[in-house]
Structures are given as C-alpha cells and as structure tokens.
TrEMBL record:
The keyword Transmembrane applies. It comes from Thiomonas bhubaneswarensis. The chain crosses the membrane at residues 33-50, 357-374, 381-400, 460-481, 493-517, 543-565, 879-898, 919-940, 946-967, 994-1015, 1027-1050. Pfam families: ACR_tran. This is Cu/Ag efflux pump CusA. GO terms for cellular component: plasma membrane. Keywords: Membrane, Transmembrane, Transmembrane helix.
Amino acid sequence: MPQQATPPDKNDVAPAPRGIQAALLAASIRRRGVVLALAVLLALLAANVARTARTDVFPEFAAKMVKVQTEAPGLSPEQVELLVTDPLEAAASGLLGVRQVASKSLPGISILKLYFEADTRLQDDRWRVAQHLASVQLPPGTGPPRLIPLTSSTGTVLMAGLTSAQHGLMQLQSIAQWTLRPQLMAVPGVANVLVFSQQVRALQVRVDPQALLRHGLDPQQVVAATRHATGLLGAGFMPTPQQRVLLVSSGTATSPGALADTVLQATPDGVVTLGDVAQVGYAPLPAIGGASIGGQPAVILKIQESYGANTVQVTRGVQAVLERHRASLAAQGIELHADLFRPADFITLAMHNVRDSLLLGALLVVLVIALTLLDWRAALISSLAIPLSLLAAVAVLVSMGVTLNVMTLGGLAIAIGVVVDDAVIDVENILRRLRDNAASAQPQAPLRVILAACLEVRGAVVYATAAVLLVIVPVLLLPGLSGRLFSPLAQSYALAVLASLLVALTVTPALSALLLAGAEHRLHIPAPVRVAQRGYGALLRRLLPHWLPAALFTALLIGAAAWLAQGMGGSFLPPLQEGQFIVHMRLAPGASITASLDMGARVSQALERLPEVRLVAQHTGRATLSPDASGTQSSSLDVNLKPGADSDRALAAIERVLRGFAGATFRVNSFLTERMDNTVARGAAAPLVVNVLGNHLHTIDSVAAQVASVLRSLPGATGVQVQAPPGVPQLDIALDAQALRRWGLQPLPVLQAIHTAFAGNIVGTVFHGAVPVPVRVVMSRDSRDNPLALGALLISTPALGMVPLAQLAHITAASGPSDIRHLGGQRVQAVLAGTTSADLTGFVQQARAAIARHVALPPGVTLQFEGEAQQRSATLRRLAVDVLGVLAALVLLLAMALHRSSAPTTSPRTAASTTARQVALVLLSAPAAWTGGVFAAWWVGGVLSLGAVIGLLALMGISLRNAILIFTHAAQLQREHGLDWNADLLRRAVADRLAAIVMTSLVTALGVLPLALGLHAPGREIEGPMAVALLGGLATSLLYNLFALPALALRFGMARSSPPASRSLESQTSA
C-alpha cells in the first residue's frame, strides 16, 4: 500500500539559519506574537514622544557665537575703537576655539562678536570669554564687558507695545520696564526683554552756567553736592548683650524739592542751594532710541527667547503674562498691543501645512497600495511600515535633541517611498512564492516559504538601502548654515530608511506569517498588476532589441537637461511666506531720533493705507543695554499683513510706497530670511554683502561708495546701502597744551567739565518704591542745544577764576564715522544689496563683473563677497566634492552587489567586465533621473534652489535602488534556472520587479505631491521646490529603468567570452 505524502507542518520555519539577517527573520516568524506586541508598545511610546516634541519652523541655524557689550559713555566711535574695542579684540582673539572675531564701535558702546568652531560647547565658550575679558584694563568710566544672554536663531519671540492718550512716554516706559519686564523675564524660555522708548525718566539737575558764574561755583561742585544728597549708605548695627539692633538710615533727597534744597555752598551771607544754580525736576534721559505704533508715539517691548527654547510654548507664556495686565492697563487709559510681531503664528501655520502634507501623502500612499494589491492582508502589512518607521525615526530624532520642524518632516515625507518599498518588495515576493508553493506538487510549510522569500530579496534590498543612505551622506556633511538647515532633513530621511529596514526584518515577516501563511490558496496576482505586467511585457518585447534608440534617447535627455541647467538661475532659499515684512529705514548720517521717528510716522501711515497691511510698528536707535546697537539714523518698521494677504503682492505694494519717500534709503526683508542673512554675513542682513577691508577709514569708505554706486546701476538692484556711512556731523575739540599751562589746568578736568556739560553725569539713584530713578547732572538745555555755545562753556581754574573753553581748545566742525567695524582684525565697511530677481546667483555674478570693471582697489584694500549666493556656491562646491567621494563608495558597493550577476561559468576577467558594465548602467540611472528634476524646476520658475538640489540627491538614491533590484533579480533567475543573458531573462526580471519599482516611484511621488501642490504655502517654501524636483525626476527615472535600461542591459550588461547560448525561459519551459 503506497504511503501518503506527509502534509507540511504549518509551524515549521526552517533549520537554524545562518547569518544575522536569516536568524532575525526566522526568530521574527517563530515569535511573531512577541514581535508584534513589542512593535505596538514601541509605536505607542514613540507616538507619545512625538506628541510632546519641541516644534519650530526651522532647526537652530545660528552659528556658535558669543556677543560681548561694553558701555563707554561719552566716547566717540574712534575713541571706543582705540580704548575699548581694540584691547578686547586682542584679548579674545587667542581664545581656544575662536574661528573669527567681528566688532562694532559706536558712540558710547562697543560690541564684540566671537564666532566659535562648530565642535565647541557654547556654555564653555561663554565661561572662557568671561574669564579672559575680565582682566582687560579699560579706561575709567567704562563699564565692564557684559555677555549678552544667549538667544535662539529666531531671536525675537514676540513684540508688544503700549500707547496712551492720557499718559506720557516716561510713565509708559516705567510701566514697561518695572512692571511688565520682570514678569516677562520670569517666563521659562525668555532670555531678554528690550524696552524701546524715546523717554526714560530721570531726576535731573540742569545747571545754569550764568548762575554758577554769579556764585563763583563750577560744575564739579554741583556734581559732588548732588551725589552727596542722593547717596545711600548703610549705617550698620548696634550690638547689645542680648541682641543686635539694625540701624536704618534715611533722609536723603528723593524728590525734586528735597534735592533743590540741598546746600551747595555756605557763606556769611547765607547758603547757596542746588535750586539757586539749577532747575531740578523730572525729565527724560538723552534719547538713544524710540518707538511708534501706527505713527503714534509708543513704548515697545521686544521679547527674546533663550537658546533652545520652544517658540510656541514661550509665546503662550508671554501672552498669558500680557493678558493678565490688559484689564488693569485699560483702566489706566493705556492700550496694550500684544501682537505687533508674533513668529509663533508663522511657525504654527507652517508646521500644520507640512504636517497635513505628510499625512495626506501617507493616506494617498495607503490608498494606492490597497488599490494595487487588492488584498487587505497584503495592503495592511505594507501600509503599517509607514507609521512604524516614521514614528521610530521621530523618537530617535527627539532623543538626539532635534526639533520637529519643516526640515525633519520634509525628510520623512521623502522617505515614504523607500519605507513602503522595503515592505512591498517583501510582501510581493512572499505572495509570489506562496502562489508557486500552493501550485507545487510537493508544497513546503508556508512559514518556511515566507522565510525563504524574505531571504531571497533581502540581500539586494540591503545593498539598495545602503546606496540610498550613501547618497544622502553629502547632505549630512554640509558645513555652516546649509548644514544646520538641511542636516536634520537628511537625518530624518536616513533614520526613517534604517527604521524601515528593521521593520522589514521583523514586523513584516511576523505579520506575513500571521496573515498570509494560511491564505496561500486565496492569493492571486492582483488584476492591476496582471494587466500592467501583460501590457508592459508586450511593449518591452518590441523595445529590447533596439538599444541604439534607447542610448540616444538617454543621451539626448541628459544633454538637454545639462544645457538647461547651465542657464537656470540659482538661489539659496526661496522667499518665506511669513505674513510680515521688516522695512529697514536709514536717514542721513547723524539724523536725530526725532527726525527718524517723524519720517517713520509718515511711512507707517502710508503703509497702513495699503489693503494688505494690518499694522506698522517702528523702533529706532536702540534699547537700553540692547545687544543690537544701531545709530539714531536707523529704524526698523515691522509691517504686519492681514490674514490671507498675498505676500508677493504686498511686497510689491510696500516697495512702491517706499519709492515715494525721499531723504531715506529703504531695504525690505522678511524676519526669518533676515535672521539667516545675519548668520551668513555675520550681522549684515542682506542677500548680497560686499565687505571692503583695509586699515584706513577714508580709503575703505571711498571704495565702499564706489561699490554702492556700481550696484545701484545694476538692473533689479534694491536696497543698496553702505552699512556704516561716514559723514556724521561732529565738533572736534583739540585741547591747546600751552593754553592749559597758562591757566594752570590739566587735560582730564577740562574733559570732565565738557562731559558733565553735554553728556551729563549719572551721580546716583533714588527709589520710588521699588522703581529706581537715575539722578543726572547736566548743563541747561540752552547751553547744550546751540553748537556755538560750546566755546562759551566756562571752565573753572585753580586760581584764575573761570575761563571759556574757546580759550583752551581749538573747536572745528568736522564729520566722522557713524560706527567703525572690524572683521578678522581689519577695519571693514560693508555694502548691502538685494535684488528683485529670483536669480540671486546671476545677480551676484553681474555685480562681481561690474565691480571688477569699474572699481580700482587701492593698495591694502580687498573685497570679500558674502550673502546667500556665496553660501549657495560654497554649499554646491562642498556637495560636488563629497558627491565624488560618495560615487567612489557607490562603485565599490554596486560592484559587491552586482558581482553575483556574472554567470557561474564565466572566467574571472569576464565576470569583472560584466560587473563593471552593470555598475556603469546602474550609475547612469542617476543623471537620467536628474534630468526630470531639472526640467520640473525650470517649468515652475527657472530657478534651481538649494532645496531642489538636495531633492535631486535624494532622487539619486531611489533611482539607483530600482536599477539595483532589476540586475540582482536577473542574477537570481540566472542562478535558479541556469539561463543565459538574453531578452527573455531581462523581460522576466523587469516584469517581476515591475510592481515594486512602479509602486516605489508612485508612493514617493504621492508622498511629496501635497508639498509640491502647495509650493508657495507657509512652511513649504523649501520642501516645495524639492518635491517638484523629485516628481520630475521620478518620471524620467521610471522611463530609464523600465525602458532604456533593459535595452542597454541586453546589449552591454553581460561581457561574453563566447557566442551566447540559446537557453531561455521559454525554451526551458517547453523542454
């Protein structure tokens, strides 16, 4: 009696497999319940991490920089440079890790910027700077070097303002400074709060020179008396046997009346008080800044966030503090403007847009998978790879301290195609093997078939994944701003790809064992795949013999794209749709705060009449202890657009209005773009910056003026400005040594008298409750406002009475610099410019050529170009070098992956030649894919942005992956069936991989399609061009891999040592 065949054990996997991958696959299939439970648990944990992750619109892109500010009241820019900036620069330049030193010397203040190498720790850098600069000897009266608080890349988190028809600016400033600011500083994540106001309250003693002369007194006696009247000194304590009694003294002058009654001099005829020689009362300190809202005087608070803070959360905390005070301020007749500038709105909108695009793309991918496979089990297995891989990538990113931003989300969107492909390749091969097994006369255990099917494709997939990761390495290695912006995109892309590989090794086989092992008799080739394979096979049968048209078509495509790319414009980053603009306004050098505010009020009112504009707020000069010091001729107007306003139309309207104002120069930018420009050009916020470096101020100012004139003559040039224009009016006081000797005077007392008269002396502080009010001694306004009165200033001599300053010094009218800047130890004058053209690279090339033709550089003067175009060029050069290295690594990787394609009977030389041929054909898929990306970028605007270039690199990995799968599957068919390299083999290899290749391209396209459709929406400005390049490149990649590559592979893919045999799939089947 014949024995019946023993049915296969459904739980039989295989004998103990060899190799890490095989062992992991087998363990996942055997312990599928444990694997799936762990996957669910880890997915939940990762989802919770993603929910609580810090979000921002961009990664931290600011360079590692420590800013040091030193106050030097009364000193001119040249004096600040000589006495303060130069010693600090000399001390700081030798610090460990310092890459470059830049500085700015303004009237009364020095600002030093120390740029550190990327591998240093910023907190350590700040500690070393503080320790090093503390020992620098500075002139008397100069404040200590002060480190500016660390702020994030975006810097300002919110701007708010106060206006009132009932209260003056001094009272509003006091409320902002001493009521709102302390509570705002207590909000977690707030680094600093700057208060811009034209008036800061002080108790002032305004001395009458004629009264001093009548009483025979000098200003220094007034200074001393005022200091003694307002000084506060602790009295100590009184010890007793049982306790210690604290002595609390009071009685110093705290009001104008009390201070006016202070005795200045006692004589037999009576006493002379401060009130006899001066007017004592409350008055504003000399204005160093000012503000307006809608053209009306205001006080503005500029809240800056700490380095690494969450902008959205900090904004909520700040808004909560402001809202708590809204009612009490309104009761006092003060209006609170809490939304003058709020970048969190743009961040939230941008993140929602990108997140929605990512989710929509993922849903479209799942829909296509379901419609293509027409089996809920297979679709579920393939689709689950998306959330598992993306959540795992997000969890790792957050643990690394990376924020969730539009760049990281963009990387995840691009990775969707590869993520799905890992699962689809496994599932498609498992389905095919299970169908073959069900039809076999001696079927094997389904779990063993699943394991074998996974192992069959895993080697090729690992090599293909390695190729995908290799091509993204140049993005990970980008330096500077480009690296800080785009590296997170590459990190998220690489992590998602690695996570998908792990999912394919564990979760996919486990789910397949759970859902497909018992359904092998119900598995059929999906109708869409069957129809596509039949039609494609018939078309490929006709195309395969015609390798020459395929080669010509590929060459023509690549040549046309290369020619087109040469003529395309380039940009570093596209314009950002932030919903607001910053208008930088500059008047003539030396313009007063009042003149700047008056011009700003007229500009603000004109801009607010535009239908797109909601509100305009202006701040001019600088705030007290502001880290960004500007002259009184400089203003910034924050133009807030109405919700839904078209940014491009609004920008054109704003520039049209500004052209109608004479007497000022204007430059328009958006906030984040300006912050990036600042990072690129070390504080010069413009797309193009030309640094004129030299040692002599007059020389570099003259060259800078010539450069500015040339730039203004270029078509499309806008906002051309010399950053620190000369010509600030000044009076030079040159003390006469012989005259000083005749009058028995030394230079310093004379200078102190001049300082007291015009700059004023802060001699003390009085307190009104907890609010400190500075006490200032200064000459009366009539004595200070008239330049002719300078020579009449009376100087006290030791024995000869009073002498006019004109008899002690030569006073001449002159002009000087508004500020003096250094870069790398040299004086520098910068020329800033923008352009209306989208082709910034082309504009910079024109500027370089025009400057070279028309500007002759004197000896010792050099030019340095900085800005977005230079950053783009430097990035592309670095990418080109790194891509060459990656290509070398790719050749080795592809040689390893394709070496098995050589027929087993061929000689080693023939096998090596075959591998080299196939490596070349696989690499050719990269430029073939790039052609579509170039065509697509040209179609949507003719500009190849840096984001589009990064998209082309990602595209290269996908195209190489598909080509690798074709060759490795052809090699597998050769080994399994002992076939020759012929048309039947290639047709079968490509047809078998048709579904995986098309689905990879299709799901990648669908994943980024929402980004491309919202090309100019907030948050999609960078990923939009990248998505467009990907879509175009995927199309030409499919054309090459499915049609040109098989024909070229048939002709060149196999080196033959003898005439080919005629063994084919069909002949083998018929035999």
